[in-house]
Amino acid sequence: MGKLHYLDPNPNGTPAVLLLHGLGADGSSWALQFEQLISAGMRPIAPDSPGFGNSRYDGLGWNFPRVAADLAALLDELNTGPVHVIGLSMGGVIAQQFALNYPSRIRKLVLVSTFSVLRPANISQWLYFAQRAVVVHIVGLATQSRIVAKRVFPGPEQNELREMAEKQISSADPRAYRAAMRQLGLVNLKPRLKEIKNPTLVISGADDSTVSPALQKELTDCIAGARQVIIPGAGHAVAIDQFAAFNRELLQFL
Q: Which of 8, 36, 86, 177 is deepest in the core (most CB within 10 A)?
């Protein structure tokens, strides 16, 4: 789909850590992890997926294998060698696809607030995803951004985070956002998870109302040797709303 914009704040670090953002966000959403990874001597690389942030979408079809191929090309360009891969939500699905298509390029895999096949756990989640599907195709990203930001950052003290999320989502390419959302609804990588042999950690927020920790546990059930860590008080954006606890678990695993 073309060249990806990316953040690379410590180009001399090693190994590289590929950070894959969620739907509507961009690479800057990993800013709270940069300092810790750099202090550990690593090289965080946070690309914007096609159509998000500053990466352009060519309009020729948005799907996970194509995004994984773009990431492989980026790593070739940067000459990183094998990398740790961390993906949150949509980024976690991309990370699974990358692990399946390019297993030798991954050291360790961290799947955050994500799934292999999306099955809402209750009527509230079904209604939430149905509402999003209608809004993004009929009303537009501005309204979509408010719905998602309120769900992910519901607390009265999270107003600044809601505003940040709204700004990121509303600036995405609507074609890419709609296509990515459809792909997330259709994807089913569960039958192939047994192919993943990389050391894998699943990090879940105890209060995630978007992808339940129980659904995320299916990843550990299907990936040999994988384990799940559930962070208390964290929601879907666990890397942001409980970043200190998230960073501890991440660095300990890496």
A: 86
